[in-house]
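Hi all, posting the design record for the shared folder.

TITLE: backbone redesign
STEP: 1 of 1
STRUCTURE INPUT:
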């Protein structure tokens, strides 16, 4: 799985709502490495979604949506 595929998923998740802005494409890149590491060590969707929610609150200062976080987690796990 490449980092670009995860970046694309993060832009679909788009917690901050930047997709339609002229925002830098690397806005969510801080999440790529940890998501890849979680997947590589065999984390399940629930654990990944919990990390996403925690990171969203701690790093971006925004509450995340658990349903969106879980969709992102499943999408990350479904990547080839």
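Okay, here is what came back for every position:
SEQUENCE:
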């Amino acid at each position: 799985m490449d980092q670009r595929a995860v970046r694309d998923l993060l832009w679909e998740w788009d917690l901050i709502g930047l997709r339609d802005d002229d925002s830098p494409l690397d806005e969510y890149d801080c999440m790529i490495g940890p998501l890849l590491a979680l997947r590589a060590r065999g984390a399940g969707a629930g654990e990944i979604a919990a990390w996403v929610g925690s990171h969203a609150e701690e790093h971006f200062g925004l509450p995340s949506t658990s349903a969106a976080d879980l969709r992102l987690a499943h999408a990350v796990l479904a990547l080839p």
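COMMENT: The radius of gyration is 12 Å.
Let me know if anyone wants the other runs.
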